[in-house]
């Protein structure tokens, strides 16, 4: 049986724990994990300067290639949504019914999709109006699962966030 495959979205100023904690947790669980960004083979730096090199350009990634997309926070989602290819990939993943997971400010990218319409979600409190305006009912909880949409508020919520993703993927 083929391993489940996860796309972790990256861009400049990402939140280091929200990228690397899921990366290592899912690798340990036997999942295949790729860093996907606007450009392939580019160095992206966390808010603290920690380096992450993207493996695949969003324009070359297909929804058929992945079972799940994870959008970490930090300021990266604001950069992500400036790329038409990243937005297209996110929309393709949403339209294909894949597991979509966002933590902290990661919800900013999802505002460029239709996933929030009529759904419950959480995020870092500073962007709750953004996800409400995108159609979600905001819930202040460590992890909110609404069908294939999994959201969390902050790095402290990573254990619940990753556990929910693993459950959604049948692991």
Describe it.
It is a single chain. The protein is α/β, with parallel strands linked by helices. The protein has a single domain, classed as 3-Layer(aba) Sandwich (Rossmann fold). The protein is 30% helix and 23% strand. It contains six helices and eleven strands. It has helices at 16-28, 76-80, 84-95, 107-110, 128-133, 158-168; strands at residues 5-9, 32-37, 43-45, 51-53, 56-57, 68-71, 99-103, 120-121, 137-138, 143-146, 149-152. The strands form three sheets. The protein has a seven-stranded mixed sheet with strand order 5-2-1-6-7-11-10, sandwiched between helices. The chain has a two-stranded antiparallel ribbon with strand order 3-4. Helix 1 (16-28) links the parallel strand 1 (5-9) and strand 2. The relative contact order is 0.17. The model has no long low-confidence stretch (mean pLDDT 97).
């Amino acid at each position: 049986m083929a391993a489940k495959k996860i796309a972790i979205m990256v861009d400049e100023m990402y939140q280091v724990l929200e990228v690397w904690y899921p990366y290592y947790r899912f690798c340990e669980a036997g999942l295949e994990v790729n860093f996907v960004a606007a450009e392939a083979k580019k160095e992206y730096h966390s808010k603290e300067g920690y380096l992450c090199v993207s493996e695949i350009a969003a324009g070359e990634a297909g929804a058929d290639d992945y079972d799940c997309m994870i959008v970490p926070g930090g300021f990266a989602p604001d950069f992500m949504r400036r790329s038409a290819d990243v937005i297209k990939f996110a929309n393709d993943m949403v339209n294909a019914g894949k597991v979509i997971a966002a933590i902290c400010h990661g919800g900013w990218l999802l505002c460029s999709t239709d996933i929030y319409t009529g759904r419950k979600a959480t995020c870092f409190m500073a962007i709750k109006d953004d996800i409400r305006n995108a159609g979600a009912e905001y819930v202040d909880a460590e992890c909110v699962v609404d069908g294939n949409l999994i959201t969390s508020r902050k790095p402290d919520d990573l254990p619940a966030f990753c556990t929910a993703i693993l459950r959604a993927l049948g692991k």
